[in-house]
Design brief:
Order of helices and strands: EEEEEEEEEEEEEEEEEEEEEEEEEEEEE
Oligomer: single chain
Distance between the termini: 43 Å
Radius of gyration: 20 Å
Mean pLDDT: 81
Strand order of the largest sheet: 4-3-2-1-5
Number of helices: 0
Shape: globular
Number of strands: 29
Helix content: under 10%
Largest sheet: 5 strands, antiparallel
Length: 304
């Protein structure tokens, strides 16, 4: 982000590192700009208050990587099923995907971070944008999400029953510090009670390095292994998964380096890294027993 956005009095949005609030953006005002010695600045929140006084706005020091300018103000459009949106909840904006268009200008929105569905009025939603390398990125019409039924799942009253048999290839998400949002490839070893499974990671090993690591996880941290897509090249600002440290991380193509290499920006850490094309894949979300994909123009290829 450019330093001009950090001047005292600037209206900004701040992301949180607190448990239960990761991924949310809160409106704030810059109280003190970052100095040359530190990358932190002081902000005063618009809607968050201190624990001691409900009337006193919360002021705290945050990293520059947690701050971005306010998104452009614009009329609220009519949203479509599968479209990415920001929903206003608990005094902050949370990224989600429109699951269903309801009556009376209401929408059902799915949040992949918490695996929850919630209903919102149209006035409580806004167009989702990403702040990448000093510019606001708006998903184009070709990047609107489309649904494709893949995988083994049954849905009852909005809840998904996951049927993972022994030997099924899956991906497992982590809650450990520094690995939030990462996905590790694993195989199901056996089912252990309701919604719990023993899995064996395909890239993580035991401390003595003799065997592949096994762990018991619940179904909320699991999803089927995503289908493969034939992608000749990735496009600028396209959402991808990048293979790093034995797991997949979601990011955005921020630069076409050339020679089958791409620079990827990771919003969660405000970092950029260069990857070979073979280390990237199209980003997909597993929602309500269906894969949500980024483009209708890509060719689907079933995994053998």
């Amino acid at each position: 982000m450019e330093e001009v956005h950090f001047k005292k009095g600037a209206e900004v949005e701040v992301s949180s590192d607190d448990d239960g609030f990761r991924g949310a953006w809160f409106a704030a005002t810059v109280v003190r700009s970052p100095s040359r010695r530190t990358n932190k600045l002081l902000v005063q929140y618009k809607s968050l208050v201190t624990d001691r006084s409900r009337s006193k706005p919360l002021i705290e020091a945050v990293r520059t990587g947690q701050v971005r300018p306010l998104p452009p103000s614009e009329p609220i459009p009519v949203f479509s099923s599968g479209e990415k949106v920001d929903a206003f909840l608990n005094d902050g904006w949370w990224e989600g995907i429109v699951d269903k268009v309801l009556d009376d200008s209401r929408y059902s929105v799915f949040f992949s971070v918490t695996n929850e569905y919630m209903e919102f009025n149209q006035s409580e939603l806004r167009i989702h944008r990403e702040w990448v390398s000093g510019s606001w990125i708006l998903p184009s019409e070709q990047e609107k999400m489309s649904l494709s039924s893949i995988g083994e799942a049954k849905c009852y009253n909005g809840m998904v029953e996951r049927n993972y048999k022994k030997g099924t290839l899956v991906e497992v998400s982590s809650d450990e510090d520094g690995f939030e949002g990462a996905l590790f490839t694993a195989k199901v070893v056996e089912e252990r009670g309701k919604d719990k499974f023993l899995i064996e990671y395909q890239s993580l090993r035991t401390d003595d390095d003799k065997d592949l690591l096994r762990e018991e996880v619940d179904s909320l941290h699991m999803r089927p292994y995503p289908p493969e897509f034939v992608v000749e090249t990735f496009n600028l600002f396209e959402e991808v998964d990048a293979l790093y440290n034995d797991c997949w991380w979601v990011g955005v193509i921020s630069k076409l380096v050339g020679g089958s290499r791409y620079k990827v920006y990771f919003i969660a850490t405000d970092e950029e890294m260069v990857f070979w094309e073979r280390e990237l894949r199209l980003h997909q979300d597993w929602i309500d027993g269906k894969w949500v994909i980024a483009s209708q123009a890509l060719k689907f290829k079933n995994r053998k």
